[in-house]
Amino acid sequence: MCGAIFLEGIDVGMLNVALPSIRADLGLSTGELQWVMSAYVLGYGGFMLFGGRAADLFGRRRMFLVPLAVFLVFSGLGGLATEGWMLILARFVTGVAAAFMTPAGLSIITTTFAEGRQRNKALLIYSGTAAGGFSLGLVAGGLLTAIDWRWVFFAPVVMSFIILVAALPLVPRSPAPRRAGAAVDLPGAFAVTGGILLLVFTVERATHTSPTWTVLTLTGSLALFATFVAVERRTPSPLVRLGVFRSAMLVRTNLAGMLYFAGFFGFQFIAVLYLQELRGWSTLETSFALLAVGADAILAPLLTPILVNRFGNVRVAVCGIALAVVSYGLFLPIGMDWTYLAMFPSMIILGVAFALTYGPLTIAATNGIAQHEQGLASGLLYTSFQFGAALGLAAVTAVNTAATGTDGTPQDMLDGYRAALLVPFLAAVVALVMIALNLRGSRAATVMATDTPEPAAAAR
Q1: Residues 139-171 pLDDT 10s
Q2: Which of 223, 243, 306, 445 has its CA 20 to 30 A from that of 288?
Q3: How far is CA 15 from the centre of its chain?
Q4: pTM of structure
C-alpha cells in the first residue's frame, strides 16, 4: 500500500517540475498547461467517491490491482503524447485509475489495523511515504526532464509494474463484502463527477469568457450537485450515505483538507512558473529549490507520531495549517531578483506544515467510521484533497491570467504571480478557521495512544 501511495506522490512531484518543458515542446498556453495537472486531479477527485464505494462493494484487493494496471498503461501513453489533448486525456484516465486504487489501498490499511495506536502509526507511515514520493519526485523530475520530459511518464510505468507484481502475492485475499441488494450508484457517480468537472472549468475559464457564460456553467454545476443529492436520497444503495455528513467534525475536516490542498497545489504551480519562466532557472535548479518542501518526508514518520500521541490529531493539524499561512505570507512579496536564501523560509516552513497536516487529517477523517464504510470515508477524504487541488490550480491560473499585463514584460509576469499567490494564502487562512472549529470536540474525535489499549490488553 505504501508503494502505491509513493507512486502517486512521485508521479505528481515529477510532473510539477516538468511543466515548463512540456509547454515548450507541445506549445501549450498557461490554461492548457494547468489542465495537464488538473485533468489528473479531476479524474482523481471526480471518481474518488465512486472508487471508495466500489472498494466496499466489490472487494478492496480487486479494486486495488485492476486500477494499478490501468495506471501503468495510461502513464506510458502520456509519455507518447504528441498533442496537448492527448496528454490531458491520458492524465485524466490515469487520475481515474488512482481514484479507485487509492481509497482501496487506504481502506485495506484501516480495516487491517484496529482503530487506535496501531492504526495511527500505520496511517502516519503511509502518509509519510506519500510525502517521500513527492519529495523524491521533485528531484527525479528535474533529472529526467533534463534528458527528456517524456521520461517523467515512462518512469512510473516501471514502478507500477514492480508494485503490481509484488501486490499479487502480498495483498491479502478476502471475500467481496457485497451485501444483498447493494449496487453501484452510477447516476450519483456521474452527477457528482460532472458537477466537479463543470465547477473547475467555470473557475478556470472565468477570465476568458463573458459573465453570462460563467453564470450558466456555474448554474449547471450546482444543478448537477443538486441532482446528486436527490439521487442519494432516493437510491437504496447510495454512493454516499448522506447521514455521514451529520458529523460536523467530519465535514469541517474534509473542508479544511480541500482548502489546504487548494493552496498547496496552487502555490507549487506558481512557484515553478516563477522560477523557470521568469527567473530562467533550469528544471534541476527548480527541483532542488523545492526540495526543502520535502522536509515532510523525514518529519512525517518521525516527529508527527510523537506530536499526535501527545497533543491529538486536531491540535497538530491546526499548527500545520497555521504554518502554511506563514509560509505563503512570506512568499507574497516575491521580487525580480530574490535569492534562494530569501525563498528558503517559505519552502522549509511549508514542508513542516505538510508533515503536521496530511497524516492527522487522514486519521481524523477515518476514525469512528464503521468498517464497511471505510472505503467511503477514504473516498470522501481524497475527493476533498483532489477537488481542492483542482480548484486551487484553476483559481491561481485565472488570477494569474487576469493580473498579467498584455505586454508580457517581466514586470507584468511578476505582477501576475504576486496576485495569484494570494489564492493559496487566503485558502490556508480559511482552512485554519475550519480546522480550529474542531478544537472543541478534539477529545472525542481524536484517538490517542494513551486512550486506546492494544487488542491483547483489552482482551485481558
Answers
A1: 788 889 888 999 999 999 999 999 999 999 988
A2: 306
A3: 14
A4: 0.79
